[in-house]
Amino acid sequence: DIDDIQILKDASATAMYGTQAVNGVIVVTTKRGKVGSPVVSYKNTFSVGIKPNITQFNVMNSKQRMEFSEEMYDKNLIDFTNLNQTYGAYGKLLNQLSTKQIDWNGFYDGIQRAKTYNTDWFDVLFRNAINQEHSVSISSGTEKAQYYMSASYFRDDGQTKGQYTDRYTANLRGNYNLSNKFTLTASLYASIRNQRMFGAYNSTEAVTGIVEREFDINPYTYARTTSRAMRPYGDDGSLEFYQTNFAPFNIIHELENNFIDIKAREVKFQLDGKWNIAKKLTYLGIVSGRMSSAYSEHIATEKSNVAESYRAMQSLAIRSANGLLYNDPYDDSEYPISVLPRGGIVITDNTLADFYTVRNSLNWKPVIAQKHSFDILGGTEIRHRKY
Fold first, then answer.
1. How far apart are the C-alpha atoms of 87 and 150, rounded to whole Å?
2. Strand pairing class (281-300; 258-278)
3. Residues whose CB is less than 8 angstroms from the CB of residue 153 and which lie 6 or more positions away in sequence, other chains included
4. Cα 294–263–138 angle (5° rounding)?
């Protein structure tokens, strides 16, 4: 729908658009109808996003990672106090050994098997995504009035499995030549965007300047930093769980149970009037408005690692170490309890915004004695913003 883009950097930009345009203005002109019979146009665009590959990164293979864990264990460098909080392939085998789920033979057999997994987490979590956009437009008009209408649909499947974006837009513009001195332009634009992305909590910057995020399940970060000795599925094809924050964790399971849905809506209208009062004197008037809403819903279901972490107290040791449990400050004799004994977590955010602008301006360009030319601009503007 874009017909032309101009960048204004001179003083006129500030004069026309106020102090907010002191560094320049980008003026976008949308397409308008043309005189003649109706013309229908259709356009589509397809693109493919290639998923990353583990060979693009310098990471340990599963054999190297398990041998590193074995060396840490042999040198007594594994912190057993935190082993129950988060563990991967080697830690899971140690936990099974300590709880007598397996014997020493099963432990050593599990280590040898894990050395051969070499999981490509990029292959597990990513895909070659197809993006597509379809648009159709209709243009028509006479000498007195021209019309332009368009609609489009955009789909981004997302390179990460389970994520997507859908966007719908519609645009209507009419140009009216009411007389040889007065023209009027009316435009209306609407858009709808629906998006799903992986669950993420607000980042907090520590004193050291390091940005931290709780319950981070960013697929790119996970694929790049997770041991290749871990695997997404077990021998029977079911999901293989390890442990994070004292609770079972599988990245595929978590992406299905910890996500954010976003719904964004926007409507814009604008009315432009131009009146050639005299040969060198022009009046411009603009009335515009924009209404938008953005609603997000972060859902961590009852089965998510996030929710399970808030009630992880399988043993007294875990119950004492789990910082997500509640400690009664007035009773030191009580054990920590869960603030979420059942159910999941829903965090909603709804942002509404209204913008209105009314602008009037007079532009006078006199020429005196055919030697001196002036460009005089004056006007008023009323602006309203509400969130």
1. 54
2. antiparallel
3. 133, 134, 135, 166, 167, 168
4. 100
Alpha-carbon span 368 to 376, nearest angstrom: 13
Which residue in this structure is represented by tokens 């532009």?
Answer: 363
- Provide the 10 A C-beta neighbour count for residue 100: 7
Angle at 336 between CA 335 and CA 337, to 5 degrees: 115
* Cα-trace Rg, the chain: 31
Tokens of 309: 């972490």
pLDDT tens sequence for the chain (387 residues): 665 566 665 555 555 555 565 566 666 666 555 666 888 999 999 999 899 888 888 889 999 999 999 998 888 887 665 667 889 999 999 989 888 999 999 999 999 999 999 999 999 999 999 899 999 999 998 888 999 999 999 999 988 988 999 999 999 999 999 888 999 999 999 999 999 999 877 655 555 555 566 778 889 999 999 999 999 999 999 999 999 999 999 999 999 999 999 999 999 999 999 999 988 899 999 999 999 999 999 999 999 999 999 999 888 888 888 888 998 888 777 889 999 999 999 999 999 999 999 999 898 888 887 888 888 888 888 999 988
Q: What is the DSSP letter of 226?
A: S
The full set of domain ranges for the chain reads 1-30, 43-130+178-184+193-386
